[in-house]
Amino acid sequence: MSKIRKGIILGQTLAKAGLTVSAILILISGTLYAQNSSMIGSNLVTNNQNQIDLSKVATSTTMITNETAFVGGFDTKYNITGTPLNIKESKDLIISSIVHDFAKSSTVGYVKNSNSASNLSGKTEIGNPFASNEQITQRIQELLSKSIENATSSNTKLIEIKCLFGNSLAAFSCSSFPLL
Fold first, then answer.
1. Where are the domains of the chain?
2. Containing H/E element for 139?
3. CA-CA distance, 174 to 168, in Å (whole number)?
């Protein structure tokens, strides 16, 4: 009975975390939306050609064994859609929004660094297997900058940048695609 109750409590906690992430995304989307809006009289007028859409989907698995919870696999997917010019002009805001959002996630402390062992003076020591916040931030900035640069050189009207950040820093990725 105790295991079932803990599972229900954990499920409720994960649901609350999902709602929190949704609220953050609405705030981030609102910031990007507001950046490209103008006020005329008392009505808010927007130009869809200037809008950038930033969306996020986060998934995670928690394993419960012998009344102990363990973080399993997780990933966070970000999609950025807009015109090459608008994405280029909003590059800093896009990067800072994603870095800030990912840094606030509950799974950020579980991202593994690919360099977890060190060899000092002939002795192999086990290092911290987890990536630091600085390493994560730097990796996200590098990937997004490169993808935005590649995407904005496109001759297409709309582009989409897809990023996937998961358990391993080495497996973080961003790619850009032209949209029809």
1. 2-179
2. helix 133-152
3. 14
Asked if residues 49 and 3 have their Cβ atoms less than 8 Å apart, the reply is: no
- Answer whether 112's CB lies under 8 Å from 168's CB: yes
Spatial distance between the Cα atoms of 97 and 147, rounded to a whole number of angstroms: 16
Q: Note the pLDDT of residue 45.
A: 38
**Low-confidence stretches of the chain (pLDDT beneath 70):** 1-49, 115-124
Of 87, 85, 78, give the one whose Cα is nearest residue 52. Answer: 87
Mean of the per-residue pLDDT values of the chain: 78
pLDDT of residue 165: 97
The total of other beta-carbon atoms located within 10 Å of residue 108's CB is: 17
Q: How far apart are CA 54 and CA 47, in angstroms?
A: 16
- Residue 130: how many CB atoms within 10 A of its CB? 15
Q: What is the DSSP string of 65-119?
A: ETTEEEEEEEEEEEEEEE-HHHHHHTHHHHHHHHHHHHHTSTTGGGPBPS--EEE
For residue 81, report the phi and psi dihedrals to the nearest 5 degrees: -130, 135
pLDDT at residue 128, as a whole number:
85
Cβ neighbours for 10, distance < 8 A, ≥ 6 positions apart? 62, 64, 69
